[in-house]
Amino acid sequence: MRVVAGEFRGRKLNAVPGMATRPTTDKVKEAIFNIIGPYFNGGTSLDLFAGSGGLSIEGVSRGIAHAVLVDRQYQAIKTIQTNIEFTHHPEKFTVLKRDARRVLAELASQGTQFDLIYLDPPYAKQQIIDDLAKMQELNLVAPGATIVCETNTEANLPATLPGLTCVRQATYGITVVTIYRAD
């Protein structure tokens, strides 16, 4: 795993040890950013199931000003922190060891809105639609925000959701990337 483009291009990233997480491959990561960017002029991102932190680090490398990474596993948090050290810009990241669904109210109480949201939950726990509804209810989704959902082929995310429009869906082997834009 590596950073594909931007300020941190070419830096190698560690994967979370064990089988509890499934890192986004470089091919899928590059495809995602070619669709949504490929570069950004600031903004804030949220990664609710951060794993190794690769998507958020890639986003910051490509111009996102600040990334919030959430994961509940100790090994994932440790890996994220190590990977952030490789960037030499820890101030651009906030890492939270929390349950993804419980952290949303905490983030809302801070008045934060996110311009880019990554949702890549464990395939066995496909609750993306509920997570998106909760984020909208708590006003965490900035107007015009981009939401990147990474699922398996069985998830079948809908083309439209209240307040969101699907702008692209692509399949890469067993991985499906669905990208929504907030109205």
From TrEMBL:
Annotated InterPro entries: DNA_methylase_N6_adenine_CS (IPR002052), RNA_MeTrfase_RsmD (IPR004398), SAM-dependent_MTases_sf (IPR029063)
Gene3D superfamilies found in the cross-reference section: Vaccinia Virus protein VP39
A Pfam family found in this protein is Cons_hypoth95
Under PROSITE patterns, the record lists: N6_MTASE
Segment forming the signal sequence: none
List, in alphabetical order, the GO biological process terms annotated in this UniProt record. rRNA methylation
The UniProt keywords, alphabetically, are: Methyltransferase, Transferase
Q: Name one GO molecular function term.
A: methyltransferase activity
**Protein name per Swiss-Prot or TrEMBL:** N6-adenine-specific methylase
Q: Which organism is it from?
A: Limosilactobacillus equigenerosi DSM 18793 = JCM 14505
